[in-house]
Amino acid sequence: MNYNNIIIEEEDKIGRIIINRPEKLNALNKETIAELHDAFDELDQDEDIRVIIITGSGEKAFVAGADISEFADFDEKEGAELSRKGQELLFDFVENLSTPVIAAVNGFALGGGLELAMASHIRVASENAKMGLPEVSLGVIPGYGGTQRLSQLAGKGKAMEMIMTAGMISAEEAQEYGLVNTVVEKKELLPYCEKLAAKIVRNSGTAIAAAIAAVNASLKEGVNGFSVEIEQFGKCFGTDDFTEGTTAFLEKRKPRF
Ligand code: COA
């Protein structure tokens, strides 16, 4: 597929999605959100891709938020639709993808940018990264899952503080709050994420998909996560990967997933 606002690279079973609007600090306009949906879907369906890394192009930004110029004149109905559609097409879609997604946060991750990182399964930030949810400074609130996922990751108190102050935090603070897993030097960001991805690639893709579904279930309203774990655990026993993994262990060799 051809994309105007993103670049896709594939190597060693790792897919890389680079958001490529550096002149607008990779702000998420409608077209970019639609393209990201298609790109995640395409890589998820590709049997040769086992991990996806998402990052931003340019020196300054991962993503500086939703594109403000596109919604500045929206009314209530259009605002609600923007949020609903965005969550469905991109943010919930990424969180529930069967292929693991690593966000390589290479600079500003603001508003929808931080929301995209938080929807990803793992976050790694470079030392220069700055994160925040500045929406209340624009008279609106985070609408791509930010009020929910920030509370889940950093706790309700920190979420309230970050949202109400609309301020930015450093990569170190983000790690302290549990918002990112690791902080690395800027030049080490992609190599680190690739090493992490390579460790994931060695394991069973079907088991990892089951683990994503089970872990996500712990935070879903009205869903019993323990029941989902039992169901997903059972399903693993019917997979070729389970046969290969257990056989390889008993034969004292490495599994070939
Ligand atoms: N939506 C639309 N355009 C954006 C944008 C966004 N969220 N963030 C940055 N841009 C654009 C700027 O308008 C500017 O475009 P221009 O050159 O055509 O004027 C360009 O990207 C560069 O941004 P600029 O503000 O000049 O860079 P900076 O280094 O001075 O400041 C930020 C960087 C991130 C602090 C600043 O761009 C900013 O506050 N952006 C908005 C963040 C935000 O509120 N996001 C949440 C949206 S809900």
Task: For the structure shown, list the relevant keywords.
257 residues, globular, 6-stranded mixed sheet, alpha/beta, 4-stranded mixed sheet, binds coenzyme A
Topology:
Layout (H helix, E strand, L loop, with lengths): L5 E6 L2 E6 L10 H16 L5 E6 L4 E3 L4 H4 L4 H20 L5 E5 L2 E3 L1 H8 L2 E5 L3 E3 L13 H9 L1 H10 L2 E3 H6 L5 E3 L4 H13 L3 H13 L7 H12 L3 H11 L7
Parallel strand pairs: 2-3, 3-5, 4-6, 5-7, 6-8, 7-10
Antiparallel strand pairs: 1-2, 8-9
Helix pairs in contact: 1-3, 3-4, 4-5, 5-6, 9-10
Give a written overview of the molecule:
This protein has a 6-stranded mixed beta sheet, with helices on both faces. It is globular, with a radius of gyration of 19 Å. The protein contains 11 helices and 10 strands. It is an alpha/beta fold and 257 residues long. Helix 1 (30-45) links the parallel strand 2 (14-19) and strand 3 (51-56). It starts with 5 loop residues before the first strand and ends in a 7-residue tail after the last helix. The chain folds into 2 domains: 6-201, 2-enoyl-CoA Hydratase, Chain A, domain 1; 205-250. The model has no long low-confidence stretch (mean pLDDT 97). It binds coenzyme A. Coenzyme A binds next to helix 2 and strand 6.
What is the gist of this entry?
Helix content is 47%, strand content 17%.
Q: In the CATH hierarchy, what is the superfamily of the largest domain?
A: 2-enoyl-CoA Hydratase, Chain A, domain 1
Query: Going across the major beta sheet, what is the strand order?
Result: 1-2-3-5-7-10
Q: What percentage of the residues does DSSP assign to strands (E)? A: 15-25%
Low-confidence stretches: none
List the ligand species. coenzyme A
Let me know the number of strands.
Answer: 10
The figure for the number of domains is: 2
Output the helix-strand order: EEHEEHHEEHEEHHEHEHHHH
| Oligomeric status | single chain
Compute the average pLDDT.
97
Helical/strand content category: alpha/beta
- Span between termini: 27 Å
Briefly note the CATH topology name of the largest domain: 2-enoyl-CoA Hydratase, Chain A, domain 1
**Which percent bin holds the helix content?**
40-55%
The radius of gyration computed from the alpha-carbon positions, rounded to a whole number of angstroms, is 19 Å
Shape: globular
